[in-house]
Amino acid sequence: VYVEQNEGRVASVSWELLGAGATLAKKLDTKVEAVVIGYQAEEIARQAGSYGASKVYLIDDPLLKHYRTAPYAKALSEAAISQHPEVLLIGATRNGRDLSGMVATNIGTGLTADCTSLDVESDTGLLLQIRPTWGGRRMAVIMTPKHRPQMSTVRPGVFPRPPKTNRTAEIVQVRM
Fold first, then answer.
1. What angle, rounded to 10 degrees, do the helices at 69-83 and 94-107 form?
2. 135 vs 163: which has the higher pLDDT
3. Does the bond joining 149 to the residue before it have cis omega, within 30 degrees of 0?
4. Terminal-residue alpha carbon distance, the chain
């Protein structure tokens, strides 16, 4: 899960996605992990643990103090390439929509935008990315069978925010 922050304020959809990610991770028999990109963002990385991340990759650099597409996309793309996640979830915020397209292009995978539901197909382990069709009258189920990670943006407020706990995550400092 990409934990989006802007000047130290976390987009609440990030916490929602950690909760949804935990549900998906259980079905995939894995753990939910997070990526935090910014400057002086270690406290946000710690918070990600309290919302369910078992490990947080922290990319902390003065260049990343303010959101700019190219450096953020480079950081998240490199993290995805090095860690090989099965699924990558990003909030469908203004910045998340901007970032996700470039990251999907950089790493050569598909992207399903504005999902309103997520599930896992039990026999294949494929992510079921569910979103309204054009016009919104029907729901489409989209899968990414050949490329990894399976990547989706999710609208804020779709999933409940998980309760904050006392859990801690392993924080891994990543250099750009």
1. 50
2. 163
3. yes
4. 19
